[in-house]
Amino acid sequence: MLLVLTGSSGSGKTTLAHALGDRLDGLAVHDHDEIGVPDDADARWRHRTTEDWIGRALDYQDRGLDLLLTGQSPLGEILAAPSAPLLKGIAVCLIHVADDERRRRLERRDDGRWSPAVLDAFVGWSSWHRGHAADLVTGPT
């Protein structure tokens, strides 16, 4: 089974994933970006690497393990991956924090690396994630 903690940067996905991994047997924990992120990462790159991670989840599944993956891919992209139907199950949880807290976390974690415009982009991506999740539950308005 593929378990995904998704959301914009700074929401706490990695912290939650490691806390779960420390408590549950039969669970491999990975971060989507641990295989490297190119400078020109875009949606096509995210789709390609999501498919790669689903392939890894299938390998874990064959060994009787589940994969808990953190990343920023929304549920729709995960379900659209060509190999997704081969998984025994997929569960996705959107992790979110308030915009001001996200900014504080990113500034603290990344030591002022991000400009205000980039921090705004992370907040915007978070807002998009919430809208995407709401559309999946209620349907588009």
Please tell me about this protein's structure.
With 141 residues, this protein is of the alpha/beta class. It has helices at residues 13-23, 43-62, 75-80, 99-109, 116-138; strands at residues 2-6, 27-31, 66-71, 90-94. The chain has a single domain, classed as Rossmann fold (3-Layer(aba) Sandwich), CATH 3.40.50.300. It is 50% helix and 15% strand. Strand 2, helix 2 and strand 3 (66-71) form a beta-alpha-beta unit. Helix 4 (99-109) packs across helix 5. The protein is globular, with a radius of gyration of 15 Å. It starts with a strand and ends with a helix. This is AAA domain-containing protein. InterPro entries: P-loop_NTPase.
Shape: globular
E-strand count: 4
- Helix content range: 40-55%
Beta fraction: 5-15%
Q: Round the Cα radius of gyration to an integer and report it.
A: 15 Å
